[in-house]
Amino acid sequence: MDLDANRSLIAGALARIPDGDRAALQTVYRLTSAKLFGVCLRILGEHGEAEDVLQEVYVTVWRKAADFDARRASPMTWLIAIARNRAIDRLRASRRSRNMEAIDAATDVADSATGADAALESLQEYVKLHGCLDGLASHERAALRGAFFDGSTYEDLATRMKVPLGTMKSWIRRAMVKLRACLEQ
Amino acid sequence: MSDTFDHSGLPEDELLAAEYALGVLDGIDRAAAEQRIARDRGFARQVSAWEQRLAPWAAEIPEMLPPPQVWDRIAGALPPRTPRSGLWQSLAFWRGLSFAAGALAAVCIAALVYFGALTQTEPLVATIEGGGQRHFVATIDVQRGTVAIVPAAFRADATRVPELWLIPPDGKPRPVGLLRADAPVTLTLSGDLAGLAKNNAVLAVSLEPPGGSTTGLPTGPVIGTGKLTNL
To answer: Which of A176, A180, A182 to mutate to test the interface with B (most CBs of B within 10 A)?
Structure first.
């Protein structure tokens, strides 16, 4: 119930931004910046860069709030996608390749993690996604994790997991096909 | 284009949307996908659908409070919005007018409810719960127009204070007052608030900066809600 209340507070504030309501943007910021900063920090791995990108994210939200359609998407999904994309753009632009040796350890940690989170809109969705990810082969899951959480490219992943680029592409594509089929069941 | 399939059985476009949403594309492929999102609504929708599928995964990323100066930088970087023109302005005018009429009606209803409430003597109670926790228990003395709030499992936050809101059936939260994590608090319900504190109205608690929300609406996360019922 508190999650539903938060979701409608965020959606309501987003709807007021196109009228130039700065307080509405501040409301969105207060409700979501801890999550989005976490997302930026996870991808960029460095506070200064994550702060710069977080600033870009909310300026983007200010400019593009009119594009958000509450009937089609949840506000958190929309905001998380903006944060991930801006962080990935920054990562690619700086051409800094992060040290990814921890990929196997990260897989273990996350697979045992529980998903209690204030930004989580539906526990059911999380449980379902996790169930479907668990159904993938472990190398497929590790590749998807590297892309989603670290912003890795096909090439990064191929190098790190020591397979040819073409193999990595077919792993990920096959994994996404399976994921979609599973989520739609 | 969408009739190109690869070995996986999904159309090429669908796979491209998935790759973009996941973030594995680089350089020219990523730029090309972005251009298509801007031009091709169908493709943009496929990307959104994939973002929706993957978003619950972000629950695993821990929240991290950004330093306070980030907001100041954002506020300083906001370009002015171009005011909406012509039709929009008149729409806003008409909306304003209908809002004013609605507000007048609400005042009349509030007056009726308020005088109705004076005759009601049963206390109202609400348990404010969220995230599987019972945070506060509230009791409203309808005759005196006071609300007593006792903290239960509420945990204090170093930087924010709990603020109580009354949400009548119109869905608009009204600020009631600040709460404490360590002691019961009794707040007075001013004029029309007392009239709105009725069976089935909702109490909510949000976390606000010290001193409470300055906007008249919750600005921080809502940690719990509870419906008022007659004891």
So the answer is: A176
Place of tokens 């791995």: A45
State the best of A8, A26, A148, A163 to mutate against chain B, taking most chain B CBs within 10 Å: A148
Torsion B21-B23-B25-B26 (CA) sign = positive
Closest CA to A16 of B219, B102, B193, B153: B219
pLDDT tens sequence for chain A (185 residues): 466 778 888 999 999 999 889 999 999 999 999 999 999 999 999 999 999 999 999 999 999 999 898 888 889 999 999 999 999 999 988 764 444 444 433 443 333 333 344 445 567 788 889 999 999 999 999 999 999 999 999 999 999 999 999 999 999 999 999 999 999 98
CA distances in angstroms from B57 to A43, A77, A124, B15, listed in the order given = 14, 10, 12, 19
Q: Find, in chain B, the residue whose alpha carbon is nearest to that of A66.
A: B81
For residue B150, report the phi and psi dihedrals to the nearest 5 degrees: -110, 125
Q: Cβ contact (<8 Å) for A84 and B81?
A: no
| Cβ proximity of B20 and B44 under 8 Å | no
DSSP state of B5: B
If phi over 0 gives left and psi between -120 and 50 gives alpha, with beta otherwise, what is residue B200? left
Is A76 touching B (CB cutoff 8 A)? yes
Domain with CATH 2.60.40 in chain B: 124-230
Given an 8 Å threshold on Cβ–Cβ distance, is A5 in contact with B71? Answer: no
Domains annotated on chain A, with CATH? 2-94 (1.10.1740.10), 122-183 (1.10.10.10)
Question: In CATH, what class is B124-230?
Answer: mainly beta
- CB spacing of A76 vs B57 below 8 angstroms: no
Taken as a whole, chain A contains a residue count of 185
Label residues B113-151 b or e (16+ Cβ within 10 Å = b): bbeebeeeeebbbbbbbbeeeebbbbbbbbeebebebeb
What ipTM score was computed for the predicted complex, to two decimals? Answer: 0.85
- The closest of A67, A69, A57 to A25, measured between CA atoms, is A57
| Chain A residues with CB-CB distance to B217 below 8 A | 27
Strand partners, B178: B163
Q: Which residues of B touch A115 (CB under 8 A)?
A: 56, 59-60
